[in-house]
Design a protein that fits this description.
- The protein is α/β, with parallel strands linked by helices.
- It has two domains: 66 residues, Chemotaxis receptor methyltransferase CheR, N-terminal domain (Chemotaxis Receptor Methyltransferase Cher, domain 1), CATH 1.10.155.10; 217 residues, Vaccinia Virus protein VP39 (Rossmann fold, 3-Layer(aba) Sandwich), CATH 3.40.50.150.
- 43% of the residues lie in helices and 19% in strands.
- The strands form two sheets. Strands 1, 2, 6, 7, 8, 9, 10 and 11 form an eight-stranded mixed sheet that branches. Strands 3-5-4 form a three-stranded antiparallel sheet.
- Strand 1, helix 6 and strand 2 form a beta-alpha-beta unit.
- It is globular.
- The termini are far apart.
- About 6% of the residues have low confidence.
């Protein structure tokens, strides 16, 4: 791949997806896009870039973005965020949303669905406490290919062994040969839609909880700030925001700030200020959520 071709690909990927492709990742681009060329019958990376330069084939551009997107994920990844969800966030939401009896969760960059289904399984185990509530889990990703895998909810033996407790595997999955499929009840709890984090998101409405984990690490600072600003607009004032273990809001945004007590949990800054002004008393909900057409428990 020539220097000019690599620079063009870097610019295209940044424009389309926000991905920041460093010089050290040239080998990754050559490897992944080489596979795409062979699969598509394109005669090498030079010919691929030539086609892309005409900007006349949106499907090819999408295929390049999907090829370069990292989709590493697993059930209950890093465990701590899911413990926070079960032990801290959910009790807060049960109290704060007692009137509206609605709960909206967004898993941004959901990949092949393990994160969203992990949350759904936690919620299902609390079904008795959530009886009569409208619960919605939205999972979005830029890649339509991984979203289709997520919709099917079919995983290999290796994938279900990574982080998934055996009791949940037996309770929520059906085995078919060497594959395991998430049962229909859990799949129905998750609404999967394509979405580019660089694009407008107002149509999604407001969320009580937003998971956006292990995504910002692939962006430059300016793109991180843009994505965080857009996501912050979708977070309810007393909502909870969860980032990846290696991610931070420091130097990116002041709208979302770290929770004072729980590492890895973030809040809207005005909510934290309101709690402080109340001398630590529970924050009174000032914005009710519109009832979402999600699952009723």
């Amino acid at each position: 791949m020539t220097e000019a071709d690599f620079d063009f690909l870097r610019a295209l990927l940044h424009q389309r997806s926000g991905l920041s492709l460093s010089e050290e990742k040239r080998y990754l681009a050559e490897s992944r896009l080489g596979i795409l060329c062979r699969r598509s019958g394109i005669d090498g990376l030079g010919a691929l870039v030539q086609k892309l330069r005409f900007r006349a084939d949106p499907a090819l551009e999408n295929a390049v973005v999907e090829a370069m997107t990292t989709n590493e994920t697993l059930f209950f990844r890093d465990r701590t965020p899911f413990d926070l969800f079960r032990d801290v966030i959910l009790p807060e939401k049960l109290a704060a949303n007692a009137t509206s009896r609605s709960l909206r969760i967004w898993c941004a960059a959901v990949s092949t669905g393990q994160e969203a289904y992990s949350l759904a399984m936690i919620l299902d185990e609390m079904a008795q406490r959530l009886a009569g509530w409208r619960v919605e889990i939205l999972g979005t990703d830029i890649s339509t290919e991984v979203l289709e895998r997520a919709r099917q909810g079919v995983y290999s033996q290796f994938e279900v062994q990574r982080g998934l407790p055996i009791q949940m595997l037996l309770r929520y999955f059906r085995q078919d040969g060497d594959k395991w499929q998430v049962n229909e009840r859990i799949r129905a709890m998750v609404d999967l839609k394509p979405h580019n984090l660089l694009e407008a998101n107002a149509h999604f409405g407001q969320f009580d909880v937003i998971f956006c984990r292990n995504v910002l690490i692939y962006f430059d600072v300016a793109t991180k700030a843009k994505v965080m600003a857009a996501l912050a607009q979708r977070l309810a004032r007393d909502g909870a925001f969860v980032l990846g273990a290696a991610e931070t809001v420091i130097g990116i945004t002041t709208t979302i700030v770290p929770d004072r007590e729980h590492r890895g949990l973030y809040r809207e800054s005005s909510s934290v200020k309101a709690q402080t002004s109340n001398l630590g008393l529970p924050f009174d909900r000032t914005r009710s959520l519109a009832a979402a057409a999600g699952r009723r428990f």
